[in-house]
Amino acid sequence: MWASKAVFLPALFYIGAAAGAAAQDEAPLSAIDWLSRSVTGPATAVPGIAMEPPVTDGAAPRPITVRPIDGPSLDGLGLLPVSTTGLPRDLWGTTSSADLARMIRAERVDTVPAIQSLLYTLMLAEVAPPADSDGSGAIFLARVDKLLDLGALDPALALLEMTETPEPEPFRRWFDIALLIGREDRACDIMLETPQIAPTFPARIFCLARGGDWNAAALSLRTGETLGFIDTEMAALLERFLDPELFEGEPDLPMPERPSPLVLRLMEAIGQPLPTTTLPLAFAQADLRSNAGWKTRLEAGERLARTGAIEPNRLLGLYTEREAAASGGVWERVDAIQDLEAALDDRDSDAVARILPGTWEGMVAAELEVPFAALYGSRLARLDLRGEAGALAFRIGLLSDDYENVARARSPQGADERFVIGLATGNPLGLTPPDQMGAAIQRAFLPTPRPADEFARLLDENRLGEALLLGIDQITEGARGELRDVTDGLGLLRHVGLETTARRAALELVLLERRG
């Protein structure tokens, strides 16, 4: 398989920068920390191979970027039109691109589901670029990176595929996503056909091998090593990838601490698959591929469902794929969901009442209350369960899309139920909140909500998007102790017309065992 003769490689006209940055101690990693940097720019000439002399301005060469006049801006791309989101087209207004990109990347993803959903909407909205947008796509890339942090690779890929021509920064994200979801062949085709995106040697070697050009891949490996563009660890991994028979009986390679998606796929290819449970959430998408075991797919599906990266029905499909293979942990949830499904299909209220408490306990332990409510809230409400099972079904229904109808159909049993019914219908004033969190939420539901001074200033300056990002941050952080921030954040949402989001977030903050 190894080449003994020289092979002309267009790939050698270009080289990339070093692959990933040094490992950092902070966790969790953001997308920008773990992206493989599979492509970089501008390209640098390989010594000994002639290239056209670059155009220079002074001593340093600069890359030339060509964009059509009045062409579409990356920052204006989106999947959700204004008619769907209800957001104004000038959402970002006068806020600077640098500030927006910083705020987007700083947003935490471990918040209550209603706020996660709002974050998704902001990341996917088709709105006008910020006033100072220079066409470089700073906001576009920040939005894609936040989707990667959420593990939402499909919408991130859909955004990236809206770009007209491959450019290094968008393409490196596209390549990483393709590696994680098993669609690398198309990405490799683009890489090999578009030299100006300047792939690194490891990425180019992988793609050459995937395309069946093993001789070219081997020559690229040797050239990259000789020129110092492939480090020792990557060279050892690529050698085993290209010719595993040479290493039969050899000890396994050490497990990398901070693998890129490319390293993940290479390790898998040489028979040393890496567990993804300690890796950034996007890596869990690799475990949803059909070649993974059922337990691995179940655990990945649960991780991704917590941030809304996969639909509840996809998680249900994993739970009901077959009979549980063991007991304990995820298998208990599999058994419980399958038993509940059967009881609901039979409309057996007694069986549902018996099964529901244990099933809910498992969902709470897995922090999957809202995906569970999306699947079963309305179905449970239609059964008209009584007693403790009825109270639990009511609570679950309040966490579903049908929360308002569930609330209006309930005859409240005590002060706590009266309060959450008030929240669901938008009028908790005059009711007794269950705790300090409830009291903070209640203060946000004045008949005419007024934004806090900081938000009022941002809105006056046409900086709605910035205000919403700050509001998301305040609700998320406020749930951890600074309850005034919860009041202000929910009040902002109501003031700008996001009443449904405010109510659902309020219900989740009161009802969930966790708060962010």
SSE blueprint and pairings:
Elements: H1 31-34, E1 56-57, E2 60-61, H2 82-85, H3 97-106, H4 113-124, H5 138-150, H6 153-160, H7 168-181, H8 184-193, H9 201-210, H10 214-227, H11 232-242, H12 261-269, H13 294-306, H14 312-319, H15 330-345, H16 349-365, H17 369-383, H18 387-398, H19 403-408, H20 415-424, H21 436-442, H22 453-460, H23 464-478, H24 483-495, H25 499-511
Antiparallel strand pairs: 1-2
Helix pairs in contact: 3-5, 4-5, 4-23, 4-25, 5-6, 6-7, 7-8, 7-12, 8-9, 9-10, 9-11, 10-11, 11-12, 13-14, 14-17, 15-16, 16-18, 17-18, 21-24, 23-24, 24-25
Quick summary of this structure?
By secondary structure, this protein is mainly alpha-helical. The protein has 25 helices and 2 strands.
* Tally of DSSP β-strands: 2
What's the N-to-C terminus distance?
52 Å
What is the overall pLDDT average?
87
Helix content: 40-55%
Strand order of the largest sheet: 1-2
Helices and strands, in order, run as HEEHHHHHHHHHHHHHHHHHHHHHHHH
- Characterize the overall form: flat
Rg from alpha-carbon coordinates: 26 Å
* Structural class computed from helices and strand pairing: mainly alpha
The main β sheet shows up as: 2 strands, antiparallel
pLDDT < 50 runs, ≥5 residues: 1-27, 41-70
Proportion of residues in extended strands: under 5%
Continuous helix count: 25
Can you walk me through this structure?
The chain is mainly alpha-helical. Helix content is 53%, strand content 1%. A two-stranded antiparallel sheet has the order 1-2. β1 (56-57) and β2 form a beta hairpin. α10 packs antiparallel against α11, α13 runs antiparallel to α14 (312-319) and α14 (312-319) packs across α17 (369-383). The chain is flat, with a radius of gyration of 26 Å. Mean pLDDT is 87; it is low at 1-27 and 41-70.
